[in-house]
Design brief:
This protein is mainly beta. The chain has a single domain, classed as Porin, CATH 2.40.160. The protein has 1 helix and 8 strands, in the order H-E-E-E-E-E-E-E-E. The longest helix has 16 residues.
Length: 190
């Protein structure tokens, strides 16, 4: 009895995310050759990969002049539904005084299936300074964005993010908070 209950509990998420499938398939003569396939309709489904570029503001930086840096972002994950994406994201930003890199696991949610989205993620940050010291620690990312284009199988987005990093030099027990803010344009392929 316990095994049956455990199997039902394990299957509940699968049943909740299952898509409606017609009970019977129409005969081949009734299908329209002009009907778009899921890959042609621009839907978010299956696996995705994305890239982006923009700028980031390095708050709490030791730099006294330039606190902005160019940024490169790479993303990959799975579309759990038309409105929810789960994935991993890595980013790298470098200024004359330091470089920031992070890897996050997060979720992107589209409340209306298109146009606007919100993001949240948790991960690990590494900040390497010009004086050869390196700080590491956890981070929290929150963001929002707009989907400005949706060509077949892709999504063009404008993103704004803020991150809070709690970093410390190796061997030190107390970390110090750092914040970054980023704005970037990205393309995701589904």
């Amino acid at each position: 009895m316990i095994r049956i209950i455990a199997a039902l509990i394990a299957a509940a998420p699968l049943a909740a995310t299952a898509r409606d499938v017609p009970a019977t398939m129409p005969p081949a003569s009734e299908t329209s050759p002009a009907a778009p396939t899921p890959a042609d309709s621009g839907r978010r489904e299956g696996l995705y990969v994305g890239v982006g570029t923009g700028a980031t503001y390095l708050g709490g930086s030791l730099a006294t002049t330039r606190k902005t840096a160019a940024m490169l972002t790479i993303r990959a994950g799975m579309a759990r539904s038309e409105r929810l994406l789960l994935g991993v994201e890595g980013a790298f930003a470098r200024s004359a005084y330091e470089q920031v890199s992070y890897v996050d696991l997060g979720a992107t949610w589209f409340p209306w299936r298109r146009w606007a989205f919100v993001r949240g993620a948790l991960g690990v940050t590494t900040i390497a300074h010009q004086d050869a010291t390196t700080e590491r620690g956890p981070n929290l990312l929150v963001g929002l964005g707009l989907e400005v284009g949706r060509p077949s199988g892709a999504s063009v987005t404008l993103n704004a993010e803020a991150q809070l990093h709690e970093v410390a030099v190796a061997g030190e027990s107390a970390g110090r908070p750092r914040a970054t803010a980023s704005a970037w344009i990205g393309v995701d392929w589904y």
